[in-house]
Amino acid sequence: MSTAGPAREAAPETGPGDSGDFGDFGDYLARLARERPDLVTLAESLSLAATVDRPLLRRARLRFVPRSTAGLEAELWFSPLVEAVGETALLFSPEAAAALRARLAERPAAHRLAVRTLIDEAHARAPGIVRVCEDLLWADVAPAAVAETHLSRQVGRLLAAVADEGESGDDMGRWALYYLNRLPPGVRSRRDVWQVRVASAERLGAEPPENPHGHPPAVASAARALVHREVALGVRLRSDGLVLSRPPRPGDRVVHVTGGPRTRLDVRHLLSHADEPRRIELREGDAAHLPFTVVQIFDSGGNAVLQVAHPGATGEVAVAREPGGPARVAVLLPDGAIALHDDSGAETDRIPPGSGRRQPALSDEGQILTWRENGVPVVWDLPMMRELGGRAVLSDALLLRPVSGTGDPGLWRRPPFHVTHHADAGRGTWVAAGTGGPVEVRAEDGSAFLLVPEAFTTEETPGVPSWSRGCVLAEVPWGTAHPAGLPARLSDLAAAGLDGIVLTDAWAEADSALLELLPHTRAAGLRLLVDVERGSARPAELLDRVRRLLDRGADGVRLVPGAGILPPREDLGHLLAAYPDRALMVRMPTWPRFDRRQPAATVSGAEEYVASVVPPFAPDSQFSVPLPQPPDAQTTGPAAEGAAAFALSLPGSPALPLPLATAGALRPLLRQRRNQLALSRGDCEVIRADDSVLGLLRRHGDERVLCLVNMSGAEAGCAFGDEPPAGRPVDLLGEGRDLPRDRLPERVAVPGHGVRWFRLLAPAPDD
User: Which of 23, 315, 545, 572 sees the fewest Cβ atoms within 10 Å?
Assistant: First the structure.
């Protein structure tokens, strides 16, 4: 239904005042009711309609002004009460509609109900958004006539429609923004209505609605989350910081977050003196360059005693030799302001911005700050925070010199950022200043990924496709995939964060399976592998069948243990060498082996199993980790999700049963496994933590992730005592915002059948 029309000209002098507020229309309607009572009665009878189409206009005139002619319809159509007209419908201005409903509310209850009934009957087949808006308008006029449960249910359906996949959700979002923004302020302020407006704006990339009624931020976040989908971002670390791009650019590391047309990210430098992150928004085609300036002071033992990080790359900092003064560090910011920090690194004050500032310097005791401003020396009294009259520049201030690479102390090579300047501050202390460093990026859903320069250097194993290292697969029995059902689920598997599927019992029909499924897996961006079962044929025949599978387009094969004989792995390796980017995997035995005396997984059994999957395999093969469950265990539910979380904490390529692969509880883990190289490609060390909790330390280069896995169904504490794993913890699953910033606590709670993953930063030099 089109309601858009040419803009109406200014109202005549007999219309409402220029301000167009409610009071003006109320006065105007009072005058108009004395001169044209039929016109006002007709308008009142239509004020509960979200949009007034011609059939409704005719029915209302015949019902409530039966002695009038069709000319009354034309008079209303072109009256100052109408904001816009189209070929088939009109819209009252919001102010006029509010004044008309106020008059209607004063009418007898029977008349109000007759108006409501007429509009209900006329719009029985109208779009859902129209009926919802009319329910809300009726509740505004007659609150006791509409049950709150009915309104909540109607608005909830509208919110679900906005969150639908595809173009239908986009269309509903457009209509919701159009109609809901025209509702009375009291109706728009309802929490559920405001959530629909927020979700619609987020889906369409429009500006979010105002929040004059102070709805909590969590309400808006929950509404936006309903319309968010997985978004791929490109990350490129530079010596001065990082660049985020959407979509990823060639050569970028790809990470996955949730977002809409606007992807909101909170970026926080992990050496920052402040917890407040920097909020950025990325639309399709955007890129954001985020440089940082970093300062650290080290004691004689090489321990960092002060650290400061500011957005922006200035390269100009000043440091006082002695602690205890008003300022220990001064950082010249990109806008010309100068931030002052005390001995703890906390920012204590800031000198307002100025142009042309350069060469800041601090006196030894941190009482005086000087700089040059457009070439003129400036002297600043820090205790009084005012400029002094003198123009003398500090001649003996500590000066940071550029790193030359020769004759410099090895200490400056330790900081996790690009050191450009350093200085000997006396008494065994050193200052390092530079740019870049480790950064945490957190999406709106709470998921986070850590960006550390060392983590971007990867060593590829010859003969192993890069896509297959640490990939996560869904195990699909061919009976489930054929003849129907699986192709429609492939996009869900990809969106959940899986990398491919493996057909587990399709050997007899592998050729037809590949021909049927390959177009669908390619379209979803997934890899397709097929199990090769030991004993299904003689070794020579197996080799020939593997060759046929690869010719058909399979992305790889997975060797499954059995009673028969497999071809020598060297022969399989030589065969796959002729097919670039194809993978050869080995499926590990299911754990634990079924034992009626001990059907549940235990920490000791898990530790033994980890020891069995970590041994090195041939460089041209990888191991696939099945779900660690007894054969009679359920494939869905908390216990199964806990087993899957354990598998995702292990090296190799986890293989999840199809019913479990898209479980919502696993999505944050799948996303973090994809984003953290230590989880997807790192080695593994077992840390015996507790009777119920197993600790695994995953390493890749300088990137370390601690995985705590609760093997029981009840919450358990992992107690490290006085010597927890070294490093500053960052909770990758967003559950540990109350953790100490410098180390793990002595005890960490892990939910039943759950995991906790912590990125450990800045380990001790001898760790």
Answer: 23
Q: How many CA atoms lie within 13 A of 623 on its CB side?
A: 18
Report, as an integer, the average pLDDT of 684-693.
78
By the 8 A CB rule, do 611 and 583 touch? no
Rounded distance between C-alpha atoms, residue 515 and residue 705, angstroms: 40
Separation between Cα atoms, residue 493 and residue 258, nearest integer Å? 15
- Alpha-carbon dihedral of residues 720, 741, 293, 445, nearest 10 degrees? 100
Alpha-helix runs per DSSP H in 448-602: 478-481, 486-496, 510-524, 539-552, 569-577
The region of weakest confidence among 75-79, 336-340, 594-598, 644-648 is 594-598
Task: Give the pairing of strands 693-700 and 716-719.
Answer: unpaired
Give percent of the chain with pLDDT exceeding 90: 14
Residue type, 196: V
DSSP 21: -
Contact present, 375 and 362 (Cβ < 8 Å): no
**CA angle, residues 700, 670, 601, in degrees to nearest 5:** 85
Strand partners, 688: 694
192 CB-near residues (< 8 Å, 6+ apart): 152, 155, 156, 159
Q: Please give the single-letter amino acid code of residue 246.
A: R
393-410: pLDDT as tens digits: 566 778 777 776 554 555
Q: What is the distance in angstroms between the CA of the first residue and the CA of the last residue of the chain?
A: 69
Say if residue 14's pLDDT is above 70.
Answer: no
